[in-house]
Amino acid sequence: MAYTLQVVNEVLRLRNFAPGMFRRTLRDVQVNGYTIPTGWPIFIATPALHLKSDIFSDPLAFNPQRFKDCKSNLMSKNFMPFGEGMKQCAGSEYTRVFIAVFLHVLVTKYRWMKIRGGDICRDPLIGFGKGLHIKLMEKHH
Question: Comparing C-alpha atoms, which of 10, 14, 12, 45 is closest to residue 122?
Fold first, then answer.
């Protein structure tokens, strides 16, 4: 399941559920020559954070291998599909396991055929602009 969890993390990196999260500054923060004063609300756009090319090489490419040997201290500040800290989603681990089991059953028990759609777009989150229509068929062994 190690590779499956890498796939889950890569899916969450490219298309996490929340467009971002609100936080409040704990101290004055310097950003590009501007000061955000203590106590001001800020919005962290996690999809933009997950596409930083200095952290994720070729950030638009689907590459689960990037999570194989990732350093936890680097990921803790740059990979937040379920929020961070005290306000992290309580169901984050359940969701990861649920997605992993779903993918396992989908790949091992079914085959599929694309009917139409599937063009990837970003607005600002990645998705299938006009949908993806597939036909699922149970595998017969």
Answer: 14
Measured distance CA(118)–CA(71) in Å, rounded:
33
Q: Between these two residues, 89 and 124, which has the higher pLDDT value?
A: 89
At residue 101, what are phi and psi to the nearest 5 degrees? -65, -45
User: Which pLDDT score is estimated for 124?
Assistant: 66
**Distances from the Cα of 1 to the Cα of 7, 24, 63, 65, 98, angstroms:** 10, 37, 16, 13, 12
Query: Predicted confidence band at 64 (pLDDT cuts at 50, 70, 90)?
Result: very high
Judge contact between 8 and 100, C-beta under 8 A: yes
Nearest Cα residue to 48 out of 101, 124, 129: 124
Angle at 107 between CA 105 and CA 112, to 5 degrees: 115
Binning pLDDT at 50, 70 and 90, where does residue 77 land?
confident
